[in-house]
């Protein structure tokens, strides 16, 4: 255990990326496969088994049997990933949004500009702060 970990109240024995199967999404929104290259050392475990045990302990069992089932659930719940499957990302990642199984993925998210706000998603109202003289600063 590292010196920093000794300060923790709880330490989860998570395997590193080379020790587990699954997916990850990088900063360019590309969902990619991760394949186990070596077995985890000692008591280290994959993320899914840790999350399953934690969720069961708090009374919300998640009975996923594989990371692939988790990805399928993401696709059902979030349309932006609806078209991303293990089969489609077996050799190359796909950038979300990818709403359908025949969609190629979206390389450039804001290529045509930023989306406009809609009535269903209004901008937050942030009150302007008064200056020390009691006046509202001008824009």
Give the topology.
Elements: E1 22-25, E2 30-34, H1 47-57, H2 67-77, E3 94-95
Antiparallel strand pairs: 1-2, 2-3
**Which word captures the global form?**
globular
**What fraction, in percent, of the residue positions are helical?**
10-25%
The Rg value, from CA coordinates, equals 22 Å
Major beta sheet, strand line-up: 1-2-3
Task: Tell me the fraction of residues in β-strands, as a range.
Answer: 5-15%
Main sheet record:
3 strands, antiparallel
Number of strands: 3
Number of helices: 2
Q: Could you give the order of the helices and strands?
A: EEHHE
N-to-C terminal Cα separation, in Å? Answer: 53 Å
Overall pLDDT level: 87
In short:
The chain is α+β, with helices and mostly antiparallel strands and 139 residues long.
Q: Could you explain how this protein is built, in words?
A:
This protein has 139 residues and is an alpha+beta fold. The chain has 2 helices and 3 strands, in the order ββααβ. A 3-stranded antiparallel sheet has the order 1-2-3, covered by helices on one side. The longest helix is centred in the middle third of the chain and has 11 residues. The radius of gyration is 22 Å and the shape is globular. The N and C termini lie far apart (53 Å). The mean pLDDT is 87.
Keywords for this structure?
139 residues, alpha+beta, three-stranded antiparallel sheet, globular
């Amino acid at each position: 255990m590292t010196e920093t970990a000794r300060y923790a109240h709880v330490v989860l024995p998570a395997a590193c990326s080379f020790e587990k199967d699954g997916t990850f999404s990088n900063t360019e929104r590309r969902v990619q496969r991760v394949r186990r290259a070596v077995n985890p050392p000692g008591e280290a475990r994959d993320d899914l088994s840790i999350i399953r045990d934690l969720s069961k302990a708090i009374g919300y069992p998640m009975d996923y049997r594989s990371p692939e089932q988790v990805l399928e659930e993401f696709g059902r719940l979030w349309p932006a990933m609806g078209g991303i499957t293990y089969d489609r990302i077996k050799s190359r990642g796909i950038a979300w949004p990818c709403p359908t199984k025949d969609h190629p993925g979206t390389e450039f998210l804001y290529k045509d500009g930023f989306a406009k706000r809609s009535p269903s998603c209004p901008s937050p109202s942030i009150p302007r702060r008064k200056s020390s003289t009691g006046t509202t600063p001008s824009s």
